[in-house]
Each structure stands twice: as C-alpha cells, then as structure tokens.
Amino acid sequence: MLDISTFTPQRGGNVFYKAIAHPLAASLIRKIGADLGNGARLAIYDPDHEASNFLALYPAFKPGYGFFTHRSEEVGRDDGRGGVFQPLFDIAQSNATHILALSFDDAKTRSRLSRVTREDQQIITLGGARLPEAMLSNKQNYLDKLNFATNFAFFRDDDQLSTRLVAANYWGHYGATNVRYWFRLYDGVGRVIAEWEDQMTAPGAGLIIDSQEVRKRFALPAFCGQLFLHVLGARGHDTVKYALDIYGRGRDASLSVTHDANAWPSPRFATLPAPDDEEQIILWVQNSHASSISPGEISLNRMGDTREYPVTVEIPAFGTYRLDVGELMPDVKWPAQLELRAGNHIVRPRYEVVQRGLTRIAHLNIERQDLKPDPTIAKMPAWMGRGFIMPFPVLDPAKYTTFLQPNPMSEQVTHLPVRVDLFDRQGRQVRQEFLGNLPRHHAAAFAMHELMPHEGHGELVYDYRDGGAADGWLHAMLRYRDRTTGHAAETSFGAHIFNTLMTWRNEPQSYTGPPPGLTTRLFLKLGQAGMRSFSHLIYPTSLEGGAPSETILHLVARDGTEIAQKAIHIAPSGSAIIWPDEIFGRDLIGKAGEGGYVLIRDMTCRLFGYHGQMNAKAGFSLDHMFGF
C-alpha cells in the first residue's frame, strides 16, 4: 500500500499531495531525480511532514543521509526510515552532498537553508516542479486548493462504446470570470495521446466532452483509458463534478451513466458486485499516479472474508487494466459483494457488467478506515427524527424490478441493523420492512418491487431491534431492470441526515457553507441526440412533517442563458419524476440545445435526485445527481 495521506473528513484534502501527484509536476519531479545522478548523497528537509507522501510516489529518491527538521520538538523522533529526525542546524555536519527541501517556495527555502549548509552542498527544492503561472487560480499561494481543482474520468471510445462527459460552469456562481478546463488523455498503457484546453464562455455555460469528437479531432485509434481534468480559474471549492454517459455505438443499445470520480485515492473500495451466472463483470483498474503498481499490490476479496485474490500484473503509470472478476474469483457469485483493496493507488474505479448482449458501467464507493461504530447515533434526540437515511427510487413495479443491497462501507463494520421505509409519490408511507441485523459477509439483495404496489421511493434507515450499532456511513447498491427489454442500470450511494433544523455534527450537510443544508442546487443534463433525460427527485426528511417543496426548474442554454423556468411542489417524503421535454416542450428544449441543462433550485429544503437518459430502444441509465 502506498504510504500517502490524501484526505480526511476533519482536515479535508491534502493539497501538497495534489501538487506532487499532478501529471505535469510528476514529469518535472522525475527529471529532478534523474539530474541528481547515482552518486548523490541525499538528505531531505521536511518542513511540512510530507516526506512519506513524496517518497511513496517517487521511490527513486533515496534519502540515505538523514531527515532534517526545523521543529525542535521533533528532533530525535522516529523518521520512519530507520533513523531519527535531526536538527536543521546539523545539515552542515552531515555527509550529504544534496539537500532536497520538500517545498515549492524556492527562494524562501534556499534563503533559509543557505544559513546552515556548506558551500559544497547543493540545495534542491520542488520549485522546479511548479505548474506554469498561467495554470494557477491563486498565484500568491501556490498550495491553495483552488490551484489543484483536478479529477479523473473513465474515458473510452471504440467500435462498441463511447463516453460523454457533461458539466457546467458552476464556478461562475462563486465569482470565477476566466474558467478553462485543461485536459490530458491517457490510453490503456498510460501514454499521453491528447492534450488540450477548453474555455468556458460564461457563468453557467454547459460543457460537453465527447470521446467520438476527441478521437476525430486528434486522429486517435480506439482507446480505453482515463481523462485527467484540471479546472483553471476555479473559485468557491476544488471539487470537479461531472456526469459521464457511456453509450453504445451502431446497433448496440447499451446506456449507462456514472457520477464524477472522487479525486482522492483510497485504501479500499466497496459496492462491487460479484458476477451473476449470466454476467461478466470487468473491473477497470486505473492507476492515478506516475509510478507503476507492482504485481500483488491490489487485490479483491469477498466482503467479510480475509482471503485475498491479488492482481498479478504490473499496471504502468496512469495505465488502465481490464480485470475480469469472474476469472479471478470463479467461485464467488452474486448476490455476494466484493471489496477492492486498492492500496491508495486509484481514485474511484468503474466496473462494467456485460449481460444479455448489453453493457452497463457503474462506480465503486470509498470504504472508510477512520470510522468506528458509534453508539450515540442510536441515541439521537427526537428532533433528529430517523437520523441517517439513504433515499432511492422504486421504479414502477409493473415495468421494472428494483433490488436493494445494503453495503458495509467502513473497515470496522461487523453488522448492519437496517430497515426500509417505503413511500408513494405523495409522501404517504406504504410499508416498513425490517431487513435484519445483517452480518458483514451477508449475501442478500431485497426485491423492492415485491414490497411496493406502485412507483415511489424507499429510504434505508438504521433499526436496532435485533441489536447492532451504526457508524453513519450507511450505503446501498440499487439494481434496476426493465422486465420487457432486459435493459438494466445500477447505482450506489450513502445516507445523510435530511431537512432537520437542528444539526448533528456536520449533518444535514450543505452544498456550500456550514450545516444545516436546507437548500438544493442540482444539475440535470438534457438528453443527447435521440435520447430523453429525466430525474427522479426525492424530498427525504429525517423528521416527519413540513411543507411541500418550492422547487424551481431553470432551463438553461449551453451558453448559460436562462430560457424558461417552471415551479413544482413535492410533498415531504414524496417524490416526482421530471421529464424536461414534457415540462418545457420540445421547442424550448431544442432552443437550449446540446449542452443545455436544467438547474433544479429550492431555497426551502434539500432534495436528493437521481438522473439518467432513455434511448429509443428503452435502454435507460440511472445514477445519483451532483449538486454545487
């Protein structure tokens, strides 16, 4: 496992990690290492406790001549490399010929070290690995998180499938005036095959990056790799959000959509299904770093089972590996679920399900290592109501099947004490079903279509009647299938506390600002040519009662201009299915054009949404929406 620290809920993201992992910086850092040569006697000055991150990503640096610190209290402590931290004043007495300072501030760092180094000792900083000034949102503070608003996207174009990344210039809502997207496309073996910039024309303008257009523009062969995104000129936050459509070419009616990747690598991921008898599941392992993944560093295991199935090939820097889960684990079948022990090498992975001649692609979710069962969750005050709830659509049971599978999502979870509350579209509770105090290794998927007489939604909640404890990171995977055509979609997400005036720790979460989050800003893309987009909006509320929502649907053209708006109302614990072409009419949808979208706003409550498209062959996609 890579010994790196990337993100914690308490501190947020580690910007230094983003700075050294950026593809442009990576090539410059490797050049620094090459220029040192084999004869360099290297010591490291570690001003900000980042040596483990740096050396994990760049193991070619061999600091055999000590780690130095300016912090008096750290002198004599274990440096993690078989020695102890030494005082900065002792650098001149060391045998080091080169001092690598892990700082991007070249001038200040050289000035500091020149006071304690010998003339024959060469000072090296990371100043030579800085991004160009034109790429910085905050030129005064290099390690400002806004300088590293980056992410990865699964990106593929071949004779069967194409991909289409869709987003909007939501940065403009935070005051950004000159937003550009910088893209770098890697093929399956990690080679750079395209690089370009796109200018965002106005606040709220739409963005489309279609793999077919990219392939034509750069005269590329078929590829399956990853697209690196860097937003230049970001404001407000550093989270790069998008929807990624995967659609079939020619006669292939496949259609799916996934959420943006989580930009931070993780030790483990879950919500990966084992293959059913008629399924082939491909896990796309995509290396997020400039160093290769050695054989055996990544493995799969059945949830709740310690036996690991290692990936026995080397995966190159920024490379993509196609792993057939059924071949690796032939005796493990759905509804068993799997863990991916990713070793901090990759951001949120995608998996592909091939079934009945159709392909669908979905994403895994991060499995937390910092959470423990928390008995105080079961003792929340009455004003928090049911506490954590995970809302999900239940499609029309006459036309679709809906299967729910609760997922253990932290390493220390042994049991999941859960039930499902089911509601019709008007917010009336139809049924309550206790699912049990499920063990970590459970292999159960529950048929919601057998419990609901008509479409509506369900809410997965904690229920302690048979014991168990909660950790607040309750997740589930949903599988939907058209009973007639066989088209299917799947998605997974986690629970939150919704629409309570009182707060519990950081819940109810807000898109921006501190809790409680009681407003909505959701992005619903319009359908691409020949397809209809839709959203299943849910008004979840942990506490019963309340007034109907005051939801405004804003139809926005690709250039950011608002064309029309429509008010709708959703009852608390109710839901609504939004078809933009029915609400606004085809003429206005045509005026919005490719790249247009619907902005879903509500200043009275926080709605939760799922979105997708439907094609002419009744193929459909479904995943949770993003907000900003």
Structure commentary:
With 628 residues, the protein is mostly beta strands. The radius of gyration is 25 Å and the shape is globular.
Structural shape: globular
Strand line-up of the largest beta sheet: 5-4-3-6-7
* Regions with little confidence, pLDDT below 50 for 5+ residues: none
Q: Taking all residues together, what is the mean pLDDT?
A: 95
Percentage beta strand: 35-45%
Straight-line distance between termini: 33 Å
Q: Count the strands?
A: 41
| Major pleated sheet | 5 strands, parallel
Radius of gyration: 25 Å
Helix proportion range: under 10%
Continuous helix count: 8
SS-based structural class?
A: mainly beta
Summarize the structure.
By secondary structure, this protein is mainly beta.
Distinctive features:
mainly beta; 8 helices; 37% strand; 41 strands; five-stranded antiparallel β-sheet; 628 residues; five-stranded parallel β-sheet; single chain
